[in-house]
Design brief:
492 residues, alpha+beta, Heat Shock Protein 90, 3 domains, six-stranded mixed sheet, Beta-Lactamase, Helix Hairpins
Length: 492
């Protein structure tokens, strides 16, 4: 925006400077032209008067002497035609067409004493002419050659001075325009940065009130609004934190009381009712744990997006890790649950060359663990595969199963809070697992993609940017962890 405003002001200043310079130079040309014209008119009138006296006396000696003296002094030729002959000095003769035309006009009693306006790049000389005689008779013609080189040189010098002055003036105007543009737009840029910061972090630093009065008032209004928004967001966050903390105590106390009450129950009906209450308490605890995990994941994603919005090069960089050991550990941890559910858990072989991705190892383990837990819970008896696959410009971690899968609409809705597939309504859960994975992936610069597996099933992919692709070097086979056979955990 500053460049656009500065460009407009620069264009206007150039137009103003050029117009002013043009007016000054035109005035200088007219002034020098008039000065030369007045001087040469006086000289021509003088020679016409002397020639008139010579024509009456019949003696042109004095006239010739004055003509030659003038030509030696000014370097300009003079031609005077009398009735008894023609006098010349300075090499001016009637051979030139311009001189002949001037003599012809003067013989018709038409004076030609006006010079054209001087131009700095012109050349050559002009002629002035007039007749002399009585009111009823022309006794002769006087022609004066006017050398304009000196006047043109003086005009060029003035052009140079005006040009330098115009350049200095333009530079000063540009400097003033830059200062003025900065003064006007600085509050605008600060407001834009503050809006971005407020959108990304929910907070905004206090802005100094400077610039034009309208922008100062706008800055003060924005600061007041940002303070109100920040206080509201802080209040909401504190309310959520306090509520989550306070819920822990009554839920724990309620579980303890039910356990104590359980000892006093005798009939099967009472025991079944107590078991239902315990199941609901466990669901509340699971839901509370999920909400807290989601809040933590969204906070991490929020921090990453805020850094990226405010400083694109400052996104959280947790360092490069090899994801394969994390996958091994999570597969081993999920193996007992897979065996209990009758599922087959397979970790595909290592690709055979070094693997690296930028991710927090604990958060990667959390994401893979959530995906495995979802597959084991909702697709009992399925074959679940875990793999890491290098792709063009990225590194992909896949958790797939050969179950019934999800429809396209269900896959699109699966990362929403508390969403659960209609076909899984009878299975305990809180609908937050995929949402947590999606937020943690975003926090680490990755992307969660759910796709259909052929011929049936679901593929959950974590697409990470490949660090090697940013340097133009893709992954190539080389020294690294040796390939390992696929590891299976099956229900016995």
């Amino acid at each position: 925006m500053r460049l656009r405003v500065l460009g407009i002001l620069a264009l206007l200043s150039v137009v103003v400077v050029l117009a002013a310079s043009g007016a000054i130079l035109a005035s200088a040309s007219r002034e020098l032209t008039q000065e030369v014209q007045i001087n040469r008119n006086a000289a021509l009138n003088r020679f016409a008067q002397v020639a008139y006296d010579a024509a009456l006396d019949g003696d042109s000696t004095q006239l010739q002497r004055e003509m030659e003296g003038y030509s030696r002094l000014y370097g300009e030729g003079i031609l005077i035609r009398l009735q008894h002959g023609t006098l010349r000095s300075g090499g001016l003769s009637e051979d030139g067409a311009e001189v002949r035309d001037a003599v012809s006009r003067a013989s018709l009693n038409v004076s030609d004493t006006v010079l054209p306006t001087l131009q700095p790049l012109g050349s050559g000389s002009e002629v002035m002419s007039r007749s002399f005689g009585t009111a009823s008779q022309v006794l002769g013609e006087a022609v004066l050659e006017v050398n304009l080189d000196a006047a043109r040189q003086k005009l060029r010098e003035r052009w140079l001075v005006v040009g330098l002055a115009a350049a200095v003036t333009e530079a000063l105007l540009l400097l003033a325009a830059a200062r003025l543009t900065g003064w006007v737009l600085r509050p605008v840029h600060r407001l834009n940065a503050a809006v971005t910061e407020l959108e990304a972090t929910g907070r905004s630093s206090q802005l100094p009130a400077d610039g034009p009065p309208e922008l100062r008032e706008l800055t003060r209004s924005f600061s007041a609004m940002a303070q109100t928004v920040t206080e509201s967001i802080d209040s909401q966050r504190q309310l959520i934190a306090d509520t989550s903390h306070q819920l822990r105590n009554p839920v724990g106390a309620l579980r303890l009381r039910i356990d104590l009450l359980h000892l006093e129950l005798q009939t099967d009906l009472q025991l079944a009712a107590a078991a239902g209450v315990v199941a609901e308490l466990e669901r509340v605890e699971e839901l509370l744990d999920g909400v807290l995990k989601l809040a933590a994941a969204e906070h991490k994603a929020f921090e990453g997006s805020a850094r990226s919005a405010l400083r694109p090069d400052s996104r959280r960089n947790p360092g490069l890790i090899d994801p394969f050991p994390v996958l091994q550990e999570e597969v081993e941890r999920a193996a007992p649950a897979a065996r209990s559910a009758g599922a087959t858990l397979v970790l595909e072989e290592h690709p055979g060359f070094p693997l690296q991705l930028a991710c927090n190892p604990d958060e990667l383990a959390h994401m893979v663990g959530e995906l495995l837990a979802n597959a084991i819970k909702y697709v009992p008896g399925a074959r679940i595969s875990v793999a890491v696959r290098p792709q063009a410009g990225r590194l992909r971690i896949e958790v797939s199963d050969d179950g019934p899968g999800l429809s396209a609409d269900e896959r699109a809705a699966s990362t929403g809070r508390f969403w659960r597939s209609p076909q899984h309504k009878e299975i305990p859960g809180n609908g937050l697992g995929m949402t947590i994975v999606d937020r943690l992936a975003e926090a680490n610069g990755a992307r969660l993609v759910l796709a259909e597996r052929s011929p049936h099933g679901l593929v959950a992919r974590l697409d990470f940017p490949d660090p090697a692709s940013s340097t133009g070097a893709g992954p190539e086979p080389g020294p690294g962890p040796a390939p390992r056979p696929g590891r299976e955990s099956t229900h016995d």
